[in-house]
Write a structure and sequence with these properties.
The complex is a heterodimer of chains A (462) and B (549). Chain A is an alpha/beta fold. Chain A is built from 14 helices and eight strands. Chain A has helices spanning 4-10, 16-21, 54-57, 95-100, 111-121, 159-167, 187-207, 212-233, 261-277, 304-307, 318-323, 331-335, 342-367, 432-442; strands spanning 42-48, 79-86, 129-132, 283-289, 381-387, 403-409, 420-422, 430-431. In chain A, strands 1, 2, 3, 4, 5, 6, 7 and 8 form an eight-stranded mixed sheet that branches. The longest helix of chain A is centred in the C-terminal third of the chain and has 26 residues, at 342-367. With 549 residues, chain B is of the alpha+beta class. In chain B, helix 1 (2-14) crosses helix 11 and helix 5 crosses helix 6 (158-175). In chain B, 50% of the residues are buried. The chains are: A alpha/beta (462), B alpha+beta (549). At the A-B interface, helix 6, helix 7, helix 8 and helix 11 of A face helix 3, helix 6, helix 7 and helix 17 of B.
Chain lengths: 462, 549
């Protein structure tokens, strides 16, 4: 007879509903057979919150890449710019609505978590890498990732901490790759493994007494312990599954804190690239620029403290920003008001250009990592960069029907990228949830539902 | 109230352990299916729908974990890598947001290794278990059992004893570090990291917490620390009866850590915990960076005095709405426009205009913009935290921008123009006027006669959509008097106290509990925070838990 515990060891989750009904699962550190012989697909969800200045952002006839998007031009064949992405079926403009496909906060998992969950069902057990550029738990509206029970997942702001979470150790200041395991586990490794196995056994026994909702929480705990334990199965601290020589390269940058906010954003892109190169993660979400909401919840605004003394406007310090007549809050006070103020519009276009440069840099990094299935890691990756803010200013002109959206995807993703799509129309534009469902199909996550959405937008499929 | 407590304890005695009902709850619903209490309607106790808290496990909040490890290991100070508790709906560390994901698991793993090593290096483990200097089998067994009982706040099961002894042996043989390995594992174990409220049985229904669970629950509720020897011994002997329970509650209620926890309740309720780090526009308020520490000291002194029962203190609603006492230094005295006390700092009596904590710099500076007073923000905070009203996010497509001011326009005109019609008005009619009543204070809580646009202030308004105190008010004092006498405010405080201590919002199954707490706290007319929070442990359901599927 198979004990419940034994049964649970082998069970797999496929959906949030299954997770609620399921039990505690410890996965083998080895990738499941189902995952072998098939190229891994990866997904990155990026959010920003400042909309666009239309005559600086959209194609102007002469070029597809205007001032704000110009940094992406070098990846023109892999990038689509979408105009007219709508939230009409999903609620309002809040980041969590875009991330979860539902206005009901704290009830639906976000797209990154859903895709990672689908990957788990295929035997890949790593969770999404959840990052942010400027806030952490100060700005609840800026949160992008919500677990399988709908409860928010704190994004990590500091790249060094995120590195430690992904790799289970501090970054090496020398930047040298972590040493490869020598002749099997030593005594200390054996003891550490035994400690974690004891913890794991305690978790298993506790799980048998819990209700369904609490089992989800314990499942998260168990999965994290399982990942820690897996590090010792190969006898050391080496990354789990390096897929290329790029794994471990350049980690020295994480040993010192980034100088300012934009440098932190770039550092996070380095981390995503490194985590992908080591196959420690296949899904990431990144909230780039909450920009300081200073309206309904000013108590969550930390001013230049969380921007590291820098402004989100490239080249300015926080003090310069104020001295130049730009308000401290670049979202409510600038992104909503650029149309009546030239200096606001100029600053905003600069911010958008800097954001595009961050995304372009990420693509550069992923293109530099060979993928064992052929081509580069980017060839097997889809990136969706959505914007909280509509074109040109939600609630003033274009309502909820025109959120600037960028999709970047490599050659093996089966997505029709490399152009400009104007999706505006009588129906109010294309619903973002349908787009995400189609992208999810291409990254190994055929979801039956995303928030309130069930239909797909097949026009973006190649 | 005393009679009620005794009745409760008799109920507990009658249900010594195990399942006492087979239904999921008196109302036949699963805990997750119960609707949150609707704050727009008066609380009504319906015993047929009353239900205990759901059975389950609670991850220790960071402060509780820190205290636990410090006491467990006999260390003077413990500093954890684990990140601060995230804020839930209102309070830090509400049960839904306390998780153990990669960040937390990795941090605890590093903390555990460092602390185990430190406890051996500094000799604290050896002092408690001298045999560890040359451990034999007996020593191993005694250490695992005794240290485990402290770590898990209950005796180890036979299975646990065997597994941890095996771990000890392996680590001792491999590295000579058997004790460290056991300590490291126990710190990471869910039996330490979570507080169990699963009860004694596992069948569907309602269970009573075990003696050990009850002891841990009492101790963490009052002190954010594990049971001390006296309480643990009672739990070990299964001797937490009516008499001993009453004694323990009285003892724990006198603990200074309970005072600190009650002060934390008000800090988090008013969302002022970060007053010392809040940022302001340095060009407009260059003095603010230096004043922040004074704001924090005044807040700390007021709360400490209120819960210490010191003369002139008092932890009733007067603390929010009436008190004129303030602890100031020279800079804050100048900020408030009063003479500095002799010696540079001390208690002073402020002018009428500063009546109540809600009109002090700490509250006002936190609840404002970086450069402007932001009446909407202040109204929102009063509405949601003091009246427990629900203000939804702006509707889809709402324009959340304010129009550019025209000459002569007041800030109030500007806000009214943007929010006084269309889809905005239903919410803003409930919060704007509350905020305008505070507009005699700027973004750093400095008193003024004109608004952010330089126009003379109008502090009158209309209190709307409350359960019992609707109507116009001429000035902030009139508004405060009305709020202080509101049953909705009193019920809100009870709901907030419940959330703070239970770690989740009240549902339809908790209405009698929250009303009992309010009654024990003196009722709406004389609500006392001290009694309100203390009453939580005397409610009918406090030792019961409902098993969830």
């Amino acid at each position: 007879m198979i004990s419940r515990r034994g049964f649970l060891r082998g069970s797999l989750f496929t959906t949030a509903g299954a997770a609620l009904g399921g039990g505690l699962v410890f996965r083998s550190a080895q990738r499941a057979m189902a995952d072998e012989g098939r190229a891994a697909k990866r997904f990155i969800f990026i959010g920003s919150s400042s909309g666009c200045v239309p005559d600086q952002y959209w194609p102007n006839g002469a070029t597809r890449f205007n001032y704000s998007t110009e940094p992406l031009e070098r990846h023109a064949a892999s990038v689509s710019i979408l105009r007219g992405v709508s939230m009409t079926n999903g609620g309002d403009h809040r980041p969590y609505v875009k991330a979860t496909g539902s206005r009901d906060r704290d009830t639906h998992p976000s797209i990154d978590q859903l895709i990672a969950q689908a990957h788990r069902a295929s035997g890949y057990d790593r969770p999404p890498l959840v990052l942010c550029g400027a806030s952490k738990n100060e700005n609840l509206r800026g949160w992008l990732s919500f677990g399988m029970d709908g409860v928010r997942v704190l994004p990590e702001r500091e790249p060094a901490r995120a590195f430690a979470t992904v790799f289970g150790r501090e970054p090496s200041a020398s930047g040298a790759p972590a040493p490869a395991p020598s002749s099997g586990p030593g005594p200390r490794d054996r003891v550490r493994r035994a400690i974690l196995e004891t913890v794991r056994d305690d978790l298993e026994r506790l799980d048998e007494r819990l209700g369904a909702r609490e089992r989800i929480r314990l499942q998260e705990h168990s999965d994290a312990v399982g990942r820690l334990l897996a590090r010792f199965e190969s006898g050391g601290d080496a990354p789990r599954g390096p897929i290329s020589g790029a794994c471990g390269e350049g980690e020295g940058v994480f040993a010192s804190p980034p100088e300012h906010y934009l440098a932190r954003c770039m550092r996070h892109m380095d981390l995503i690239a490194l985590a992908f190169a080591c196959d420690e993660r296949r899904v990431a979400s990144f909230m780039m620029t909450p920009l300081g909401h200073d309206n309904m919840r000013p108590n969550h605004y930390r001013g230049d403290a969380y921007l590291g003394g820098a402004s989100a406007v490239p080249g300015l310090s926080a003090a310069d920003q104020l001295a130049d007549g730009l308000p401290g809050d670049l979202h409510q006070s600038v992104a909503h008001h650029w149309a009546s103020n030239e200096s606001f519009a100029r600053a905003l276009a600069q911010i958008h250009r800097a954001e595009a440069a961050v995304v372009a840099y990420l693509i550069d990094r992923l293109q530099g990592i060979p993928d064992p299935a052929g081509g580069s890691v980017f060839d097997h990756t889809a990136i969706v960069w959505y914007n909280e803010h509509a074109d040109p200013n939600h609630g003033v002109n274009a309502g909820r029907g025109a959120f600037p959206t960028v999709i970047a995807a490599g050659s093996q993703m089966g997505l029709d990228v490399g152009g400009y799509r104007d999706l505006r129309g009588g129906s109010g534009g294309e619903v973002h949830g349908r787009i995400l469902l189609s992208v999810a199909d291409r990254v190994g996550a055929p979801l039956s539902q995303f928030g309130t959405h069930t239909e797909r937008f097949s026009a973006i499929l190649a | 109230m005393r009679m009620r407590i005794e009745v409760v304890i008799l109920v507990l005695l009658g249900a010594c352990s195990g399942v006492i009902a087979d239904a999921p709850g008196a109302d036949g619903r699963e805990p997750s299916e119960r609707a949150p209490v609707d704050p727009s309607a008066p609380l009504v106790c319906d015993p047929t729908s009353e239900a205990p808290l759901p059975a389950g496990i609670w991850r220790l909040q960071r402060a509780a974990l820190t205290n636990t490890l410090r006491e467990l290991l006999g260390l003077d100070e413990v500093s954890l890598e684990l990140a601060p508790d995230p804020v839930g709906v209102t309070f830090a560390g509400e049960v839904d947001v306390l998780r153990m994901r990669d960040d937390e698991v990795n941090a605890i793993a590093r903390d555990a290794a460092a602390l185990a090593d430190r406890a051996m290096r500094e000799g604290t483990l050896l002092r408690r278990f001298p045999c560890l200097s040359a451990p034999d089998e007996t020593c191993r067994s005694v250490f695992v059992a005794d240290f485990g009982r402290l770590a898990f706040r209950r005796p180890l099961t036979r299975d646990e004893q065997a597994r941890y002894e095996a771990l000890f042996s392996l680590a001792q043989e491999e590295l000579g570090e058997g004790p460290q390995a056991v300590v490291e594992a126990m710190i990471q174990s869910p039996s330490l990291l979570y507080r169990s409220e699963l009860g004694a049985a596992e069948r569907t229904g309602i269970v009573r917490m075990t003696g050990h669970e009850l002891a841990a629950w009492l101790s963490y509720t009052f002190t954010d620390a594990p049971p001390d020897e006296a309480l643990a011994a009672l739990a070990d002997r299964d001797a937490l009866d009516a008499s001993t329970l009453r004694e323990q509650v009285s003892r724990l209620a006198a603990d200074p850590r309970w005072r600190a926890k009650k002060a934390r309740f008000l800090r988090e309720l008013l969302d002022v915990s970060h007053v010392a780090t809040v940022e302001k526009d340095p060009t407009r308020f260059p003095e603010h960076a230096a004043l922040r520490a004074s704001f924090e000291r005044e807040l700390e002194a007021l709360l400490e005095r209120a819960f210490a029962g010191a003369e002139g203190g008092g932890a009733d609603l007067g603390l929010l709405f009436d008190t004129r006492e303030a602890f100031v230094d020279a800079a804050l005295a100048e900020h408030y426009g009063v003479a500095a006390p002799p010696g540079g700092e001390g208690w002073v009596t402020l002018p009428e205009v500063r009546r109540g904590l809600l009109r002090r710099a700490a509250f006002l500076a936190v609840h404002s913009g970086v450069a402007i007073s932001s009446p909407i923000t202040r109204g929102y905070v009063i509405r949601t935290r003091i009246l427990c009203d629900v203000i939804p996010d702006p509707p889809p497509g709402a324009n959340t921008s304010l129009p550019d001011p025209e000459p002569g326009m007041s800030e109030r005109d500007r806000i009214d123009a943007a929010t006084g019609s269309g889809s905005c008005v239903s919410c803003h009619a409930r919060m704007n006027d509350l905020g305008f009543a505070f507009d005699e204070f700027d973004a750093v809580g400095r008193h003024r006669d004109v608004d952010d646009l330089g126009v003379p202030l109008d502090l009158s308004g209309m209190l709307a959509d409350t359960q019992d105190v609707d109507g116009p008010f001429d000035d902030p004092d009139a508004l405060f008097d009305r709020l202080r006498g509101s049953r909705q405010v009193a019920e809100c405080m009870s709901l907030q106290a419940f959330r703070f201590l239970a770690g989740r919002g009240a549902t339809s199954g908790d209405r009698c509990t929250t009303l009992d707490m309010l009654s024990a706290a003196g009722g709406p007319d004389a609500l006392d925070f001290d009694a309100l929070l203390g009453a939580y442990v005397h409610t009918d359901n406090f030792a019961m838990r409902e098993v969830t599927r």
